[in-house]
Amino acid sequence: MKTSLTWLNEYLNNTINLEPAAVADLAEQVERTSVEINESTTIAKGQDGLIVAKVMRVQPHPDSDHMVIAQVNVGTSDLVQVVTGAPNIAEGQLVILATVGAHIIKHDTGELITLEKVTLRGQDSYGMLVALQEIGFDNKIAPKNFEDGIHIFTAQDHVKPGDDALVVLGMNEPVLDTDLTPNRADMLSMIGTAYEFGAMLKQKVTIPDFALVEYESLASEQITVKLDDDALAPKYALRVINNVTVTDSPLWLQKRLWNAGMRPINNIVDITNYMMLMYGQPIHAFDLDKLTNHELHIRRAKKDEQLVTLDEQTRQLRSGEDIVIATVDEPLMLAGVMGGKSSEVDRQTKHIVLESAVFNPSLIRATARRHNLHSEASARFERGVNWDNTFTALDHAAQLSDELAGGQIARGQVVASDSQRSTRTIALSTQRVNQILGTALTVSDITTILDQLAFDYQTHDDYTEVTLPARRPDMGIAADLIEEIARLYGYDNLPVTLPYGQTTPGQLTQQQRQIRASRRIMESLGLNQAISYVLTTPEKAQQFAENTTAKLLTLDYPMSSDRTTARQNLLAGLLEDVAYNVNHFVRDIALYEQGRVFIANEKNDLPTEVEHIAGILTGNYATSTWQASKTDRSVDFYDIKGIVSNYLDQIGVNHVRYVATDRHVNMHPGQTADIYAGEVYLGFVGQLHPLVTKAQKLAPVFGFELNLFAVMSQVQLDVHYHKVSRFPQMSRDAALLVNADIEHATIESLIKQVSGDKLVDIKLFDVYMGDKLPSGKKSLAYTLTYQDDDGTLLEAEVNSDFEKVTTALIDELHVEVR
């Protein structure tokens, strides 16, 4: 929130020193005690040479159709000639003149420039008449559009030629832009901020008073209100003001608004914003004559209702969830968030209805998020407003409508609900305070700090009973009070002590160690880690998932349309990373990702989280260089399978087998295998389906995805040392004529199953399919290697084992040994 120290000073008896050095010290004190400061600045930002001038004469430019020559009075005996193209200039106006030598902010670049005398088509110009946007005002806070012309003061602004325009406009008022945490709702108001600054500076807060004068007409005869449920609005009241004149606000009010970062609109709207800034209580104004039957209804939205809000956007309301203020036939506003276009106050408005309320904060927060409509009002209702000021702010707004808009306040408030806030008291033990903070504070020390905070309390022998004020909705337990005492006592003043007691070193769990080992192994195999979004689209969430019919886990309030669903696989995110890199001319890619996927449960609101690891390869495995003339080789299935095999071997998974499959819709049906450890399914590996990669204009892409929980369940926790045998090996070759549909994995599995423990390696060294073989046959040649770790193998042992293998192959697979 932007806090004008000049305005704040009114509540602190002008005790704040507004000199730049003192403001910097104050900002540091606020940061050390209360909240962070984003910026300490003024609208002026180094500008000077801006004065109020009165336009005495306006003459056409002899050599221009759109420029005029103005003679202006700047409070001296001599008039100053200025050439301008302002479309709204006229004699008698009080305007802003940037004199020769002035430093002003260039409108289009924000650069500080020095004005010089210029000659425009033969006529000398000694300065420039300016719009507010030309002297540092953002379009969001300037009361008029830049195209409307120069800024013009009114008679009620009480300015005269020669006045310093920076002072008149409040541009030199120091402003602290505070970065509030969600709990500090009290500092979303000037009065709440005054209490905070007063506690730091040990100053009493003086709240301005006002005198409300009511007329004879009754408000209850002009407006009625109906509330469906007190839970929607525990406090709600209206006031009626008749015969208002809607016009621009006086300069003092406009200054307060634009220094707070808000744009002045008209006196009625500005009063409601002023009350919101002062009390932290949003106020809304309706045009009474635009309300059907002069009746308001506070209810939940109905089915298919729409509302055009003040930002001219059509909102589709959610039935039963959005709170609306409505007439008998249409919704008028999103309660606590934004008003509607149909009932807005404009220059033709004569009678107004002012609303002040406390709305259900949970429903307001949900509405603001659902419609992506986070307003100044919703920010305050979400965090909690001061119940004690709800109707006070309403009366003050009515009084200002009388004072600034000439209105007549109808007698009485029209109250729909007035639930009383339960008084919150906390018993604060002095011993507990000192135990938590490590201090030796006395009851007197504690009550002194409570006095600074302006909290009511009663002291007892060993504790202090503190009554929490309504302006601090963030406080509810003793720990909150202890925190207040700590920060005002000064964190730097708290004693520093070393921890005591026996210390124990932290350690990772077995699962954490295995996950970290997985990442190290993947990186040692040449893959780079990628981190993808957990949230994605429904299609990508299930693109490579094992169960594509599983229920999706979607967010009620997603941050964007392409981040709505929790992922059920990692490969889809890696494929996005590949596409991104290829689009940026990086084509040789090796990535892996380790993270969680989320499986929705039918009977449980919480999803099942499963740890996965996935990898992806595309591009060239090796390229030609001047050092070695070899042709490029693209990655293939065996490269990605080799990575998986190496990983599982290093992590400690034995008895791994690969089974060809075509069940994965988005994987190549002829180059994909399921991975098992014994009978336990671990994941899959293969080429992504060409239709998937072709859609993104990618070269062939190979990938794998493993269930890390399944992998870790198969890891051999005990590491066994296998000594290198000092005894020689013996080998036997076998050439087999087999049916073309028999896979190598089937033959290898059978050989391992029937052979003894002396077989250490099986190598397929030749594959032949050609005209010289019978139809439907292929020839596979194997080398079987035998070795004994403890002694020299006997040839009879090897021959016996080899014979068992060939017999099994003939009997079970009907092969022919050649």
Automatic annotation (TrEMBL):
PROSITE patterns recorded: B5 (PS51483), FDX_ACB (PS51447), TRBD (PS50886)
Cofactor note: Binds 2 magnesium ions per tetramer.
Chemical reaction(s) catalysed: tRNA(Phe) + L-phenylalanine + ATP = L-phenylalanyl-tRNA(Phe) + AMP + diphosphate + H(+)
GO cellular component, one term: phenylalanine-tRNA ligase complex
Main localization, broad class: cytoplasm
Chain residues that bind Mg(2+): D474, D480, E483, E484
FDX-ACB domain residues: 725-818
Keyword set includes Cytoplasm: yes
Coiled coil: none
Residues covered by the TRNA-binding domain: 44-166
GO biological process: phenylalanyl-tRNA aminoacylation
Localisation per UniProt entry: Cytoplasm
Gene Ontology molecular functions: ATP binding; catalytic activity, acting on a protein; magnesium ion binding; phenylalanine-tRNA ligase activity; transferase activity; tRNA binding
Keywords: Aminoacyl-tRNA synthetase, ATP-binding, Cytoplasm, Ligase, Magnesium, Metal-binding, Nucleotide-binding, Protein biosynthesis, RNA-binding, tRNA-binding
Record carries keyword RNA-binding: yes
Subunit: Tetramer of two alpha and two beta subunits.
HAMAP family: Phe_tRNA_synth_beta1
Protein name: Phenylalanine--tRNA ligase beta subunit
Native source organism of the sequence: Leuconostoc kimchii (strain IMSNU 11154 / KCTC 2386 / IH25)
